[in-house]
Amino acid sequence: MALKGVILSEMRPTGRLHLGHQSVLNNWVRLQEEYKCYYGVADWHALTTGWEEAKEIHSNTIEMVADWLATGLDPEKCVIFRQSSVLEHAELHLLFSMVTPLSWLERVPTYKDQIQKLGELGKDINTYGFLGYPLLMAADILVYKANAVPVGEDQIPHIELTREVARRFNHLFKPVFPEPQAIVNKDVAVLPGVDGAKMSKSYHNYISIGAETEDIKKNVNMMVTDPGRIRKTDPGNPDVCVVHKFHRIYNSGILEGIETECRAGQIGCVACKKQLAGALEQNLGPIRERREQVLAKKGYIDEVLRAGEEKARETTRRTLAEVREAIFG
To answer: Which is it for the CA torsion 143, 146, 149, 154, positive or negative?
Structure first.
């Protein structure tokens, strides 16, 4: 089957991933069958908001890539690499910075928003690196001449900036870059944390991909249910229940029955949570097993990354040769 094009997508190495990332990874697994896919560990991007935690990046990378492989990414079908090991990313970012108006970076919606939010958490990210991270992201995409990027709707402004950067470079020098399109995955599941807030490692309210059986049970038992339901025979409202939001994704086959029994007071929250824990174990058990197998092969993940980086550099060196010729002649 002919491939549809080239895709670049990355994640910051923050350690083990949680269920909020699972639908993104499932999408990556599907895309590797249809596109030439480059999946990057965005360790330089991690420094833009967490430079003081740099010593954790290597171990976080191992944990994150283990989740990727356990979920189904295949190094024979896609290129898995570390951003910082492919230096052409940095060179292209530098060259783009010479011709990109400052105002383009200052208007990126996440810029001021993140400065405010992270500032409230005590982080000072008023740095050149943070201001320029959308341009580094553009370099990440364009160095592979990617024509498609899977993103959430909140990242669409980043892809539009990438398109503007490509268009400006092509106009100022000569046509080198495609203008990539955003692939918005409508099936990405937005899961709350066990407390009903956004699922986040910062809030300690998440369930890891490949979590242990007992951890699954413990976290499900902590999930917030209908606060208006006192006794198990009281009619419940699934629409305000965190457990029900998980049932929609992991127990869709019996969802209608669960809703009916809940509203009629025919199933208690304890029994409902037990059903969910069983469904999560069925989903995550095989991932946990594959994850353990991956980590049991000493040095395997480093080997995957090194092999991916060699493949990545084959592409990026060609691109930078074109870029230098376009600029300098």
So the answer is: positive
